[in-house]
Amino acid sequence: MRKKKRPFFYQEKKTIWPIFLLFIIGIAIFSIWSIRVPRIRQLFGWHVIDAQSYAKSLLIPVHTPNPLLFRIPTIYPTIEMPPEQVIFAENLENINLEQDRVDQSPLVTPTPGIAWIIKTQRPVSESIAAPDEEDSKAFLIPPVFEHQDFQNDGPAVLSAAIRFYGKTESQYLIAKKIKPDYFDPFVSFEEMETYLHAIYPDLGCQIRINGNTNMLERLVFAGYPVIIRIEREKTFPAWDGDDLKDSRYIFITGLDKNENRITYQDPFIGDRINDTYDQIMADWYAYQRKYMVVYPKDDEWRVQQIFGDQWEKDYNFQSALQKFRKDAEMLPQNVYAWLNIAVVLAQNEQYEEAWNTYRSIQNLSIPQRFFLYNPSLYAAAFHTGNADELGSYADYSLKINAHSEESWLWKGWAMILRNQEEEAAQCFRKALSIKPDYQDALYAVEFLKK
Questions:
Q1: pLDDT tens, position by position, 284-293
Q2: Can you count the helices (H) and strands (E) in the chain?
Q3: How many CB atoms lie within 10 A of CB 180?
Q4: Alpha-carbon distance 393 to 362, whole Å?
Q5: What is the DSSP string of 297-333?
Q6: Is 36 helix (H, G, I), strand (E, B) or coil?
Q7: pLDDT tens digits for range 201-257
Q8: CA diameter of the chain
Q9: Residue 136, Cα to own-chain centre: how many angstroms?
Q10: C-alpha 138 chain-centroid distance
Q11: How far apart are CA 259 and CA 281, in angstroms?
């Protein structure tokens, strides 16, 4: 009924703000709920995070360091790095006492917790499918496929390798230990190896570089799946000017020599993906063709026979370096050949040659995420006294992803070369906030106390 003293054409205005407020509250509740559901994060989380990162780059641009700024570099005095046992000992007498305790203490194996566990429901013996009569193909029975969470390809493939042998494991249990920060962009082969040795003493693993299809065939035909890291292209840029070059771990479970095809699990895409030898070899080359094989400890003698002369790590290093040098001579414009040389040299502590090699190719198109996935070259810059370049590349990587503990660590070491110890301590603490048991950052913190 129309109220008195109002004209007959008066209409009551409806307020829409309560509906709008309820809509906002609904979106907030859905967002909070959805980020706690792994499958929803897996499907939509990547796009949301990349969109946020891209929007941020419009306000704070991401630019690669200009090599011309370091054409005449300032070389800072390098510092001596004491062994870990010296850094962590309160006094030198504690070194021998601590060593005695290690020798006398029994091995304690941690037990993983219960959270998002995937168990392979079949006997271990059924995991290995024998090659066919003509020995032209071999397809191992893969474990139940586990779709990776954000930047969780490393824990996902390691989980697959462990479950292949009938163990109970999941990417979330592994990530809790080696990638506790959800946004951490990088997990190394060595971090996965450390986890495996600590939790599964009955399993062994070997990591080598300069792999090839012949080695993959020998391992898979013998019943051992292989983990490798390959280059992939993103479908959506994470910042303005993103070159889209990214990487991913995959889990190889089958080969067909007649068709020259490889079957594998891609934790981002799906199970039983099939690709050609040539394509895998090309994508694998960007990461030194590094590979990791997990096997029962009792089979170590068998794996050693399969590896042959590549079992000796020194020989593997020398043969890989020789191969990459030859590739660089034949194809001098192949940036990955030079980068592989630099990375291998740095990992073998030949820092000066490694850094000189890297600086010589800065006119080539170096992948923008290179330092995120190859932190060993940070060490080369540090040990050659190139603090300004080291700090510049660390800052650049942190603009791409501020959750890289390796970049925070080496930014801190750059500060130490510049005698900025307070700023260095802040960087080391930031690295430890990302990964609390990060041994290199713990070492750095103790180094500052000496």
A1: 999 999 999 9
A2: 20, 9
A3: 15
A4: 13
A5: GGGHHHHHHHHGGGGSHHHHHHHHHHHHHHHHHH-TT
A6: coil
A7: 999 999 999 999 999 999 999 999 999 999 999 989 999 999 999 999 999 999 999
A8: 101
A9: 33
A10: 28
A11: 15
β-pairing verdict for 226-233 and 291-296:
antiparallel
CA distance 63 to 136: 49
User: Which segments within 120-241 are labelled E, that is strand?
Assistant: 137-139, 168-169, 203-208, 226-233
| 405-417 vs 439-449: helix crossing angle, rounded to 10 | 20
CATH number of 63-108+367-450: 1.25.40.10
Listed residue (161, 146, 149, 349) closest to 252, CA to CA: 161
Residue 36 sits at φ, ψ, to 5 deg, of -95, 0
Cα-based torsion angle of the residue sequence 32, 34, 431, 186 in order, rounded to the nearest 10 degrees: -170
Quick check: 401 and 408 in contact, CB under 8 A? Answer: no
Which pair of tokens denotes residue 296?
């029962």
Quote the pTM value.
Answer: 0.85
> Measured between alpha carbons, how far is 251 from 334 in angstroms, rounded to an integer?
26
Query: Sign of dihedral through CA atoms 208, 213, 214, 219?
Result: positive
Phi then psi for 96, rounded to 5 degrees?
-65, -40
More confident residue, 138 or 3: 138
Q: What is the dihedral of CA 308, 314, 315, 320, to 10 degrees?
A: 110
Q: Which of 253, 306, 307 is nearest to 280 (CA)?
A: 253
Which two three-digit tokens encode residue 259? 């068709």
Domain ranges of the chain: 17-59, 63-108+367-450, 114-311
In one-letter notation, the amino acid at residue 62 is V
CATH code, residues 114-311: 3.90.70.10
Indicate if the alpha-carbon torsion angle 409, 415, 417, 420 is positive or negative.
Answer: negative
3-state secondary structure of 136: coil
**Residues 6 or more apart from 100 whose CB is under 8 A from it?**
none
